[in-house]
Amino acid sequence: MTLQELTAAFAEQYAQRPIPADGPIDTSHIDTTPDTDEFDAVWQQVIAETRARGNDFHLPLSVAYARRLCDAYPQADRELVLVATLLHDTGWAHVDEDRIISEGFRGDWRKSDIRFEHELQGCEVAKRVLPGLGYSDEFIAKVTAIIDGHDTRQEAHSIEDALMRDADRSWRFDRVGIALASGWFGQTPDYYTDRLEEEIIPELITEAAIAMAHADLKRSRDLLKTAVLR
Ligand SMILES: [Fe+2]
Ligand SMILES: [Fe+2]
């Protein structure tokens, strides 16, 4: 099937949005997610890539949220979601650092050239790292199909793609994501958290991600006193 056909089939299969969860939704603070060494072999291959653009926070946190999303959507291929999430932004380490700020966070950043470049470079990282760890060509192709376009494609083409996309946004509602991303965009926490509510929650695809986002946003706003410090 072509990407277009896959996207259309997924939209038809999951016509109800946000996508209702079949499994449990855990809205407790992400700190309570237990650590696991499940993908340490993959992490070890991308240490250099975690040093770019806040990835050393963004990637582990996104994987922690992805685990919860997989619990809520047990029909998804868990390993695919988690490996794709772990690797999705590794491409930032292979694009020009200065352009990350000048193009990646300003204006219509979702359509900037550097966005497409970090997606392609992330696919290259997956193709470099995963074969040596015993992952099949078929699995790797599914991983790169998710990484390719994760920021620039409008629509998800599978439940795994949808969960990765929601995991990529979920970390932003935690105080770590707020601290890092409000700095990237040059915005104060009160303004940034308002934007999260108005712009990012409506982009979430799954019921579970929306519930987690609301719970995190409430906790973060209370903790950061954004109602007063504005
Ligand atoms: Fe990205
Ligand atoms: Fe990301």
Automatic annotation (TrEMBL):
<dbReference type="InterPro" id="IPR003607">
    <property type="entry name" value="HD/PDEase_dom"/>
</dbReference>
<dbReference type="GO" id="GO:0016787">
    <property type="term" value="F:hydrolase activity"/>
</dbReference>
<dbReference type="InterPro" id="IPR006674">
    <property type="entry name" value="HD_domain"/>
</dbReference>
<feature type="domain" description="HD">
    <location>
        <begin position="64"/>
        <end position="169"/>
    </location>
</feature>
<keyword id="KW-0378">Hydrolase</keyword>
<protein>
    <submittedName>
        <fullName>Hydrolase</fullName>
    </submittedName>
</protein>
<dbReference type="Pfam" id="PF01966">
    <property type="entry name" value="HD"/>
</dbReference>
